[in-house]
Amino acid sequence: MTFSSPITRIGRGVVALLLMRTVLLFVGTGVVLPFVDWIYNRALLWANVTVVIVDVITLLVLSRLLARQNRRLSDLLAPSRPATAWGLLAFIILFIGFFVSTFIGNLIAYQGPPPASGVLHGVPMWMGWWALLVMPVTIALAEEGLYRGYAAEVLESRFHKAAALVVIAFFFALQHTALTPLSPRAQVARFVTTFLVGLLLGCMRWRWRGGLWSLVVAHWGLDVLGLGLPILLASQAS
After folding, report:
1. C-alpha triplet 64, 70, 73: angle, nearest 5°
2. What is the CA radius of gyration of the chain?
3. Biggest alpha carbon–alpha carbon distance for the chain
């Protein structure tokens, strides 16, 4: 009991930290709801703004936790030119993995392709540029810093690496349910997709040259292509 209690407390602490991000994302959407006539899908559009606030909070919390270890956020992320170059290659692998994961998620949830989601309407021009230039940067830094960075270090030092990988991928997927329409099938598709992507990113962290920063770059590229560009195009069409 003497040896297991500290480990249990540390495990619970990391789980609480991971859960915090999901809760904050739901809170952000909830705050917006009264201003969009309580239409959840319209509130999700503004998640492109609230997620950046959650990212900043996440990075501040990480900085505080790392300071207790006499470390800085830059020590965790370890940016460098070689890691950036490796990150561009990692982006290609991540993009392919995301495509396959999306196919599997849709197959499980819809037994085939998902219904057409239609074109985003009413997207302000500033939000389009925000989603392209700001949001992918903060998301990549916060999510990789939290999931594949701090949480992975702590959990892998105290539990089996495979168990840590699954736990982190689970919470990575859980947070994306806060950014998804409330349709049960849409929720299942997004959860499965991002869970598999979380497993892929975790495995790449073990094997990929360039360290955590290469994953930050790859994650940034995926969000620019998959989130930023579509929202920017929608803003120009609005």
Report:
1. 55
2. 18
3. 62
Question: Distance between CA atoms of 73 and 95, rounded to whole angstroms?
Answer: 26
List the domain boundaries for the chain: 4-237
Using H for helix, E for strand and C for coil, what is the string for the chain?
A: CCCHHHHHHHHHHHHHHHHHHHHHHHHHHHHHHHHHCCCHHHHHHCHHHHHHHHHHHHHHHHHHHHHCCCCCHHHHHCCCHHHHHHHHHHHHHHHHHHHHHHHHHHHHHHCCCCCCCCCCCCCCHHHHHHHHHCHHHHHHHHHHHHHHHHHHHHHHHHCCHHHHHHHHHHHHHHHHHCCCCCCHHHHHHHHHHHHHHHHHHHHHHHHCCCHHHHHHHHHHHHHHHHHHHHHHHHHHHC
Write out the chain's pLDDT in tens, 238 residues: 444 455 556 678 888 999 999 999 999 999 999 999 999 999 999 999 999 999 999 999 999 999 999 999 999 999 999 999 999 999 999 999 999 999 999 999 999 988 877 667 789 999 999 999 999 999 999 999 999 999 999 999 888 999 999 999 999 999 999 999 999 999 999 999 999 999 999 999 988 877 899 999 999 999 999 999 999 999 998 6
Contact (CB, 8 A) for 171 and 18: yes
